[in-house]
Design goal:
Elements: H1 2-8, H2 14-67, E1 78-84, E2 93-100, E3 112-124, E4 130-142, H3 143-147, H4 162-166, E5 173-178, E6 181-189, E7 198-199, E8 206-209, E9 229-237, H5 239-247, H6 255-267, E10 269-276
Antiparallel strand pairs: 1-2, 1-8, 2-3, 3-4, 4-5, 6-9, 7-8, 9-10
Helix pairs in contact: 5-6
Length: 294
């Protein structure tokens, strides 16, 4: 009888089992929360690393190409502010046209045309939803290609070659340098430390044109002279923020929804700054009396 009673003491009561199960559930829930947070942090870190890699690569490419810029009486540079999305969504992106000596020296074609610009793109996410994003493009072409259409930059009278270049897209090798861009600004600084960008009296655009230098004052003493430096500001948002914010920018959304989407994209972006000093080239000072465009 005693052996039978002692053997019965080895089991668990129902209350003990329920308490153990409750503790186990709490542990599982707690571990799940920790795992979820760790996964989110890891994903955020991976996204940030990828974004930084893209931004740094894009900025390095910009700086290297602009370093080789040539500005003289026939090799011009042109910058126009707020070309893409000048007010529809509130971003505003600049255009940069220039000629550089970064080409292949061995084939006697060292000069290359460059056009850096941002283009609005409608993309689709995995769920089939449409969103608006902005991509930074790098377009380049060698002089041999342009010469076939009479746009050879060294030909007298073709200083403002970008006018024809913009209408001749077939001559450009175009690639996307960075996706999900929310800011691309070029600041052109003169030798006196002031900005060399001004308002074009005819169009009202905020521009720098090396052929004319200051649009308002027409200071011919610095016409066809390269700027002292270019400051470049590039801002790139995360793919998730680009999709979420970009869906608010489609035409069917209200202005308030679009504003919140834009704020979402900017809030989760990373900024990159760079300064580059162009090559001086064979710069010559000009006077209105002998300037061939007058």
């Amino acid at each position: 009888m005693r052996e039978r009673m002692e053997s019965g003491r080895g089991g668990f009561t129902l209350i003990e089992v329920m308490v153990a199960m409750a503790v186990l559930i709490l542990l599982v829930v707690g571990m799940t929360g920790i795992f979820t947070q760790a996964t989110a942090v890891s994903s955020q870190g991976t996204t940030s690393a990828m974004r930084n890699s893209v931004g740094e690569t894009a900025m390095e490419t910009l700086l290297q190409d602009v370093d080789g810029m040539i500005v003289n009486e026939r090799l011009g540079c042109y910058i126009e502010a707020d070309v893409c999305d000048g007010g529809q969504y509130g971003f505003g992106f600049d255009d940069l046209w220039f000629i550089s000596t970064s080409g292949d020296q061995d084939d006697d074609m060292p000069y290359e045309y460059f056009h850096f610009y941002v283009e609005e793109t409608e993309a689709t996410n995995a769920m089939g939803a449409t969103y608006v994003r902005f991509d930074l493009h790098k377009a380049r072409s060698i002089m041999a290609n342009f010469d076939q259409r009479g746009t050879y930059a060294l030909a007298k009278g073709q200083t403002e070659w970008w006018d024809r270049g913009a209408a001749d897209s077939a001559r450009w090798d175009d690639q996307v340098l960075a996706e999900n861009v929310v800011r691309f600004d070029i600041y052109c600084l003169g030798w006196n430390g002031d900005s060399w960008m001004g308002q074009d009296g005819s169009s009202g655009d905020h521009v720098f044109n090396s052929t004319f230098s200051h649009k308002i004052t027409k200071d011919w003493s610095v016409a066809n002279v390269p700027p002292a430096a270019f400051d470049i500001y590039l801002q790139i948002t995360s793919p998730d923020a680009a999709m979420e914010g970009g869906m608010a920018l489609v035409d069917s959304k209200t202005s308030e929804v679009a504003r919140k989407g834009r704020e979402k994209m900017i809030r989760e972006s990373a900024s990159y700054f760079g300064r580059t000093v162009p090559m001086t080239g064979a710069s010559q000072l000009h006077h209105p009396a002998n300037h061939y465009l007058d």
